[in-house]
């Protein structure tokens, strides 16, 4: 199937109140253009340099989502270019984001990435680390937490569903609380293989790459 057919199929499945982020990592601008032409404006990238290049050379009304692990020394390159950072995963990164956004006079919208599967190979905070991160977020001036994100460890449908459900519980719990800098708006979970399950468990933002663009070939650009 073509990219256009894929995006129409994904769009047809996704309810109106769920935001689709088209994950365009490794993809050429011509391919992004096909998705853009269908009306998609939210694109996800996981490499700072690639995002910055695409930002400079693509439509200005695109909202760029940073979805990869963000190294502290690269925060400065994305200030002013991203609409949402999905991957706040440590206090040190939080402090760097605050510092660089204060210096630029801008506000960073972020999601806290939670390592719900406690996968040692994945980034994200563990649930028992969440309170401390939240306390420090509350001391920030230029960081706003808009929700939560997760990437699941490989597993079957039952295991995925369980993790998504646990995420939704954490999300609902935070949703009820009153904070200065934290307000639950987005629950970013679900990729090509499991976005339907994620939506059925309460995701309102899904990140789909291969389901739109076809199989990824690395070193494409
Ligand atoms: C690559 C990536 C996706 C998309 O994965 P697909 O399987 O291609 O849909 C989603 N989220 C993150 C964080 C990614 O790095």
From TrEMBL:
Q: Which UniProt keywords apply?
A: Pyridoxal phosphate
**InterPro entries given in the database record:** Ala_racemase_N, PLP-binding_barrel, PyrdxlP_homeostasis
Give residue numbers for the modification (N6-(pyridoxal phosphate)lysine).
25
Q: Specify the domain of life of the species encoding this protein.
A: Bacteria
Query: Which residue numbers delimit the Alanine racemase N-terminal domain?
Result: 2-215
The record's section on Pfam families has: Ala_racemase_N
Listed transmembrane segments? none
Stored PROSITE patterns: UPF0001
Q: According to its UniProt record, which protein family does this protein belong to?
A: Belongs to the pyridoxal phosphate-binding protein YggS/PROSC family.
What does this gene product do? Pyridoxal 5'-phosphate (PLP)-binding protein, which is involved in PLP homeostasis.
HAMAP family reported in the protein's UniProt record: PLP_homeostasis
Q: What's the protein name?
A: Pyridoxal phosphate homeostasis protein
Q: Which organism is it from?
A: Clostridium aestuarii
């Amino acid at each position: 199937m073509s990219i256009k057919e894929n995006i129409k199929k994904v769009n047809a499945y996704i309810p109106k109140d769920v935001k689709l982020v088209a994950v365009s990592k490794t993809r050429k601008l011509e391919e992004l253009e096909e998705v853009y032409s269908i009306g998609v404006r939210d694109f996800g990238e996981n490499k700072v340099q690639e995002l910055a290049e695409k930002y400079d050379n693509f439509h200005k009304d695109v909202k760029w989502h940073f979805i990869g692990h963000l190294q502290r020394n690269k925060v400065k390159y994305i200030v002013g270019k991203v609409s949402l950072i999905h991957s706040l995963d440590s206090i040190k990164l939080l402090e760097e984001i605050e510092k660089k956004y204060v210096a630029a006079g801008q506000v960073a919208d972020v999601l806290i990435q939670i390592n719900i599967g406690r996968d040692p190979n994945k980034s994200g905070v563990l649930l028992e680390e969440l309170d401390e991160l939240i306390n420090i977020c509350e001391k920030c001036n230029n960081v706003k937490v808009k929700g939560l994100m997760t990437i699941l460890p490989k597993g079957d449908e039952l295991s995925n569903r369980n993790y998504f459900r646990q995420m939704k519980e954490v999300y609902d719990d935070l949703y009820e609380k009153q904070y200065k800098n934290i307000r639950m708006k987005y629950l970013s979970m679900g990729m090509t293989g499991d976005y339907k399950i994620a939506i059925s468990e309460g995701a309102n933002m899904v990140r789909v790459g291969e389901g739109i663009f076809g199989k990824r070939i690395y070193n494409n650009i």
